[in-house]
Each structure stands twice: as C-alpha cells, then as structure tokens.
Write a structure and sequence with these properties.
Length: 308
C-alpha cells in the first residue's frame, strides 16, 4: 500500500525539497489548493457560493516552531474573516483550523492554542459563521477535544472532527452526538500505529458506517466528510431512516475532488460544503491528499511524466 509511504514522506524534509522543486508540482498543487493569499481565494469563494455550494476555509500550515508563527497563523485567519465580512456570506462560509498551527505542539501549547484560536472563533461568530477544529494525529486529540469543550461554553456552534480509523472514535461519537453539536466525520489521513487505528480499508469503511450511524441517530448536526459514493449513499439512507430533513446534516468534500458530485448533491437539495485550502505552506496538506486516494497519486505521477 502506497498510502503509508506517502504519509511518511509528508514528514520528510528531503522529500519536501524534492517535490517542491519539481517543475510540475505547482500545476498539480493548484488542483487542491487554488491560491496562496486571501485575495487569490475570494474569486473561488464567490464562484462556489454562486453555484449553491457552501465552503469551509483552511489556511494551510502545521509546522509551527515558535509562538510568533502561531500568532501569525491567528492573524491570517482574522484577515480571512475580515474578507468574509465584506462578502456577507454568513454561514455559507465557515472555517476549519488545525490547532497545531496555533502552537499546540509548543511548550505550554494547549493554553497557547486555546488563547490563539479563541479570538478567531469570536470574530467568526461576530459575522454569523463558525469554526471547526480539525483532528490531527491521535496524540493531539485529548487537547483538541478539551479546547473544543471550552470554546463551546461561549460558542456552542463550534465544531470538531472525528476520524473513523481510530479505535477510540465510536466512544467519542457517542459523547459528541448531543443536541447542538456539529461533528465532521472523516476516515482519517495521518499515519497511525496499529495499536490505535484500523489499518485496512475494509475495516476503516466498516468503522465509518458504525460511527456515522451514531451521529445520524444522535441529536447533533452530522457533517459527512467523504468522497466515497457507497458511503454517501449509506449516509443518505441512514439520514432518511432517522427522519432527518435535508438541512439537518451536510456533506463535505475537498476542493478539486469530484466537483461534479458537489454540484449534483447541491442540486438535489443537500447542503454540500467544499473544504477549500489556501496558503503557501501546502506540502503536508498536499501529501495527505495524495495518500488518501490512489487516483490523486496517479494524477500527480501522470502530470510529472507528461511534463518531464
């Protein structure tokens, strides 16, 4: 399986330099990350929302080594919120944040990440939108969930992400599937050891369905993060059986992947949110997109061969 190899490469400085230097890389990266600045991304936001889609915006970047970088990450999100305020799109555009980008891995990182993310959540609420805390590797999750719980005291609409491939996730889902919660379910895109996570695709898919059922049958708002047609169909069936209306859950997919499916689901009346990343520190995000789906890797390799 190439996925684990690619995920290992996402942490390699040597591979980062090699792939970043390849002439074709920017062309392929642009498929998944359509801009480096807020100004780059505004036309994308306008175009997608005009088509009936909603968005969650991610300023890419995870390898934070100083408190100053964490502060800069906070300020990047605040600048994004200023632009969203001008666009007056309300809940059609929310934000996703990785707490590692706010300093979670530094000394005193839990408190630092909370202090940095709180003003972003406050500013988002002030313009009628919200923030979802992305899940990262399993060692960070207790801190993420604690920060999520703390933020929800003042901003109950704050969402979080859970990952189906982790053994702990069914218990997390039961705890989180309460009234007022917003939970995005994804398969998982980090290299995790066999002691904490399922390793085989069929095991992960089965776990995804088990967790999805918990969320859909619960009282919260499920956000279904998948491009898998079979899982999307299962989600629709579970939602129907649970008596959920179309505005009581949503689908989420990545920018650059299955764009026609985004439009199809929106045309059927589903809430369809496109996870749209931008920024200059794209490497880790890009490599996980390659690892998640063989078709993404084939696309990249074909582009390198054709342009080589």
């Amino acid at each position: 399986m190439l996925g684990p190899v690619i995920l290992a490469a996402s942490r390699s400085d040597r591979m980062r330099r090699l792939i970043s230097a390849a002439p074709v890389t920017k062309q392929v990266v642009d498929r998944f990350i359509p801009g480096e600045t807020v100004d780059d991304i505004v036309p994308i936001i306008k175009d997608l929302t005009a088509k009936g889609l909603e968005l969650t915006m991610d300023v890419v970047g995870e390898d934070i080594t100083t408190p100053e970088q964490a502060t800069a990450a906070r300020d990047a999100y605040l600048a994004l919120i200023d632009h969203l305020k001008e666009l007056q799109l309300g809940e059609k555009v929310e934000m996703s944040v990785k707490l590692s980008m706010f300093g979670q891995a530094l000394d005193g990182g839990h408190e630092l990440a909370l202090a940095n993310v709180r003003p972003v959540v406050e500013a988002a609420a002030a313009i009628g939108t919200t923030v979802t805390l992305d899940a990262e590797d399993h060692t960070t999750l207790d801190s993420m969930f604690a920060i999520h719980e703390e933020l929800r005291k003042d901003f109950p609409q704050t969402g979080c992400v859970i990952q189906a491939y982790l053994f702990r996730t069914e218990a997390d889902a039961r705890r989180l599937a309460a009234a007022g919660s917003r939970v995005r379910l994804v398969k998982g895109a980090y290299k995790e050891p066999a002691e904490v996570a399922y390793q085989q695709k069929h095991e992960i898919d089965k776990a995804y369905v088990r967790v999805l059922r918990i969320l859909v049958e619960g009282e919260g708002y499920p956000m279904i993060g998948s491009h898998d047609p079979r899982l999307i169909a299962i989600a629709q069936e579970l939602a129907h059986k649970a008596g959920r209306k179309l505005d009581e859950y949503e689908f989420q997919m990545l920018y650059g992947i299955r764009g026609d499916e985004h439009l199809r689901l929106a045309a059927e009346g589903h809430r369809m949110r496109v996870y749209t990343a931008y920024g200059t520190d794209w490497y880790g995000y890009f490599m996980r997109r390659l690892a998640e789906k063989p078709a993404n890797l084939r696309f990249f390799l074909r582009s390198m061969v054709s342009k080589g």
